[in-house]
Design brief:
- The protein has 107 residues and is α+β, with helices and mostly antiparallel strands.
- The protein folds into two domains: 75 residues, no CATH class; 31 residues, no CATH class.
- 34% of the residues lie in helices and 27% in strands.
- It has a three-stranded antiparallel β-sheet.
- It binds zinc ion.
- Zinc ion (ZN) binds next to strand 1 and helix 1.
Amino acid sequence: MNTTDIRICVDCACYHANGDTTGIESAEREAEVIAARMLAPGEHIAVGDSDGFSWSSCDACGSDLGGDRFSATLFSEDDEPEGMNDDYSQYGRITQADYDQAGRFQL
Ligand SMILES: [Zn+2]
C-alpha cells in the first residue's frame, strides 16, 4: 500500500469523509465531485485537517476555485504485484492478474 499526501477542496473533503454532497450547490458541481471519486481499484482517500484558504487546485476534482483546502492521504496499491496477495487476502480482494484470469473462466 502506497500513500500520497494530497490537498483537496471542501466539497471533496465532505464527500470523501462522509459521502455527503448536501453542501454542494449545483447538480453539475456535485457530478464533478462524484466523478473525481472514480479512483483506481484499491485506492481511497482519507481526509485530514483543514489547511485553511488556498488558491491551489484540488488534487481530487481539479477545481481551482479559491477556498478551504484539506490535507488528505491517497492510499493506492503497491506497484509490485508480488506483495499484493498477502495484503489483499485479508480484505477479500485479488490482484488484477487474478481478476483477469478469473474473468476468462467465467464464460
Ligand atoms: Zn475537489
